[in-house]
Amino acid sequence: MNRALIVIDVQNEYFTGSLPIAHPPREESLAAILRAMDAAGRNGVPVVVVRHTAPESSPLFARGSHGWELRGEVAGRRYRHLVDKAKASAFHETGLRDLLAGLGVDTLAVAGYMTQNCDESTARDAFHLGFAVEFLSDATGTVPLANAAGSRTAEEVHESVLVVMQSNFAAVTTTDRWIEAVEARLPIPRPSIWESTAVARDTPAT
């Protein structure tokens, strides 16, 4: 097992810009992200920071804008690589797969924003590329959503993604538990679609 920590889009847009993270509270999730980065550094786990970059005319994450810049606490910490992306997944046309392969990484821990968008997309791609994935439940976060399909609070969005991730794609864990596993050099139990579908299988068809 050779871990890396990927810190996705911890940028000012999610704190002082147009998309303030609502759940978990952004200052709490930021504190968890920083704890994970510090623990990774102490234990030789490479940290890859990802930054979402949009054209200068974009209303969000416009290149060169204050919202596009990394949060200072993240920018000021040590990390191995900075990856710029233009789509939700950190693997899309970024060279991240080759970068991780060069580091010998087989297990990728996901932290950052937003839970259901860039975090989930990256985690799913990592799973399909053969990585074991760890998803830090309190070091990720999101905003409320409302559109033609309906509406959900930030908490509902976040918790739903965690359940889906744990069902098949990633081992969902708290930051503190992840740090314990990193320090002990132990894996976190993998998800099981069989276990997660037990309730459905036990419900008689009507």
UniProtKB/TrEMBL annotation:
Residues 4-176 form the Isochorismatase-like domain. Gene3D superfamilies: Isochorismatase-like. It comes from the Bacteria. Keywords: Hydrolase. This is Isochorismatase. It comes from Microbispora corallina. The lineage of its organism: Bacteria, Bacillati, Actinomycetota, Actinomycetes, Streptosporangiales.
